[in-house]
Amino acid sequence: MGLFSRLGDIINSNINAMLDSAENPEKIARLIIQEMEDTLVEVRTAAARAMADKKEMEREIAHYSSVRDDWNTKAELAIDKGREDLARGALLAKQKAEGEIARREDAMKAAEDAFEKRQADLAKLQEKLSEAKAKHRALMMRREAAEHRIRMRSQVHDGKVDEALARYANVERKVDEMEAYADTIKGHEPSLEAEFDALERNDAVEAELQALKAKRNGGKPKAVKAAKEES
Question: Is this structure's pTM higher than 0.70?
Fold first, then answer.
C-alpha cells in the first residue's frame, strides 16, 4: 500500500460523503489531521522495520562474505594438495555464497531506494500536516472570535438590556430625588448665627411685652427699665 493510499481513500470516500451531507467543516478538518497523523505513525513504523531489515541483510552479507572467503581459501588449499575434486567442490560452495551475497545486495539497493522515496513522501506529508494544523488553529480562533462577537452584539441589541438600563435610570432618578430632599432638610436646620438672632428677638419681644404690661398697669417694672438701659 502506498504512503498516501489510505489518506486518499479517506478523502475520496468519507470526506466527500460528509460534504454531500453538509457535515461540520471543523469535523472534516479534524478527521483529515487525524488520518495524516495515523499515516505518519505507520510510515515511521515501516521505516523503522526497513532499517532493521537493512541491518539484518548487512549482517547476512558479512556472514556470506566470510563463507565465500573461507571456501576460496579451501579451494586454494585443495589445489596445493593436488585435490582438484575438492577444489572444484569448494569453488561451487564459494559461488553459492557469492549468489547469496548478490541477492542481498540487490535487495538492499531496492530497499534503500524505496526508503529514500518514502522519506521524501514523509517529509511532504509532515509539511502538509503542519499546514493543516495551522489552518485548523486559525479556523478555530476565527470561529471563537465570531461567537464572541455574536454574543456581545446580541446583548447590545437585546431589548432586555435596554429595559434593564431604563429601570436603572429610574432608580438613579429616585436616588437623585432622595439626595435633593436630604439637602432640603439640611437647609432648614438652624445655624449658630440664626440661633443667636432668635435669642435676641426673643429678648426684644419679652421686653416689649413687659413694657406693654407696665403701661396697662400704670407703671414700669424694673425688668423692663433694665432691658431698655442695656439696649
Answer: no
